[in-house]
Specification:
Helix content is about 25%, strand content about 35%. It has one helix at about 5-25; strands spanning about 30, 35-40, 50-55, 60, 65-70, 75-85, 85-90. Strands 5-6-7 form a three-stranded antiparallel beta sheet. The protein has a two-stranded antiparallel sheet with strand order 1-4. A two-stranded antiparallel sheet has the order 2-3. About 30% of the residues are buried.
Length: about 110
């Protein structure tokens, strides 16, 4: 395994672990991902990718904000979910059961 690939794998594992830990620690409701998704540093695909979460991972949405429009497995939306400090995923990858906001706005 290359050094770059090893660093990316460790970073992605840390992001996934942080999302699970935060959901457990806060006791807040978590939602499953509908597909594999890139975690971004802001609400759009132009923001740097800071991790990756696999389909089925449960995430806690701390707040939501409008951003870039994305089409994903659950539809098309401008809503982005903050799943931790500086960590965002498009709401179209999260099975919230709603087409609208389910958490406070950021």
């Amino acid at each position: 395994m290359s050094d770059q690939l090893a660093r990316e794998t460790v970073t992605e594992a840390a992001v996934a672990e942080a999302a699970v830990t935060e959901a457990t620690a806060t006791g807040a409701k978590s939602y499953p991902l509908a597909a594999d998704v890139n975690v971004r540093s802001g609400p759009g695909t132009s923001y740097p990718k800071i991790g990756h979460l696999p389909k089925g991972t449960r995430v806690t949405i701390t707040c939501q904000r409008p951003g870039e429009t994305v089409t994903g497995p659950t539809g098309t939306s401008r809503i982005w979910d903050r799943i931790g400090s500086g960590r965002y995923v498009s709401d179209t990858y999260v099975r919230t059961g709603s087409d609208g906001y389910v958490a406070p706005r950021c």
